[in-house]
Amino acid sequence: MPHADRNLAHAVDADRGLIQERASTMQDRLIVGLDVPTLKDAEKAVRELDGIVSFYKIGYQLAFAGGLDFARELASGGTRIFLDMKLLDIDNTVAKGVEAIARMGMTMLTLHAYPKTMKAAVEAARGSDLCLLGVTVLTSMDEQDVIDAGYEHDPHTLVLRRSEQALHAGMGGIVCSAEEAEAVRRIVGPNMAVVTPGIRPKGSDHGDQKRVVTPAQAIRNGSSHLVVGRPIVGAADRRAVAEAILDEMRSA
Ligand code: C5P
Q1: In whole angstroms, what is the distance from residue 201 CA to residue 63 CA?
Q2: What is the largest CA-CA distance in the chain?
Q3: Contact in structure between 224 and 29 (CB atoms under 8 Å)
Q4: Which domains does the chain have, with CATH numbers?
Q5: Based on the number of CB atoms within 10 Å of its own CB, is 186 exposed (0-12), middle (13-18) or buried (19 or more)?
Q6: pLDDT digits (tens, 9 = 90+) for 57-109
Q7: Distance between CA 246 and CA 214 in Å, rounded?
Q8: Average pLDDT, the chain
Q9: Relative orientation angle of helices 181-188 and 155-169, to the nearest 10 degrees
Q10: Does the pTM exceed 0.85?
Q11: Residues 30-48 as b or e (16 or more Cβ within 10 Å = b)
Q12: Which position among 86, 96, 119, 202 bears the catalytic label?
């Protein structure tokens, strides 16, 4: 391996190691999706979950409502932030965006798992602590949705192919359904993060999610991190639901 590539491999391994080390307790493995319309709502949710949740995901809804400054503020206080931007653009644009996000102190960032996009992002994040996650196939998509989008593969095959490409690109982790986590884990090995949204405790509303799994089963399937949005954020008693989910994760 050329010297520069070896350094890159070491840098990426160090980043992945960091994620694994930090993810040693169940609390570190639960990421709450702050999918709320206003900053005020986000601040309220974070206050309510204080002491129970220490990792939040900020996506389109909050990011475009002042959430990026809030993300910086939380990160500077030690809260981990997963910025769910699902980047996809020409390589140069992705690289410049990743460089800027790496300077914000974020813990995780998503991009669509296209090989060229991932390679550009890995190069741009080199030397930072940012864990880059490849989004394989959205958990709201089933076989027909994937066909309608023009792909020939079924979702499972596409997830596995993209996981392999993410591994080769030097990504820090994968986003997939916990239904696929076991097979993905076999491909990416023990060190990459396997982050799974589409988590639904028994009896909760699926919403638009199609490939859903319970918290306990997601842990058993090899997920390193569970992303839970509406079941916690939409609950009347957010603290109680988050605690119940953590208990279920620990019982697995
Ligand atoms: O409310 P719910 O628990 O379904 O939230 C899941 C979160 O994870 C949402 O913010 C959604 O955008 C995100 N996500 C997903 N599927 C992916 C990647 C991200 O549901 N493949």
Answers
A1: 27
A2: 56
A3: yes
A4: 29-251 (3.20.20.70)
A5: exposed
A6: 999 999 999 999 999 999 999 999 999 999 999 999 999 999 999 999 999 99
A7: 12
A8: 90
A9: 30
A10: yes
A11: bbbbbbbeeeebbeebbeb
A12: 86
Using the atom order of ligand 1, give the atom closest to the CA of residue 59. Answer: 10
| Interior angle at CA 109, CA 183 and CA 103, nearest 5 | 150
Ligand 1 atom at minimal distance to the Cα of residue 176: 21
Which amino acid is it at 111? Answer: L
Question: Is the CB of 35 within 6 Å of ligand 1?
Answer: yes
Nearest CA to ligand 1 atom 20: 197
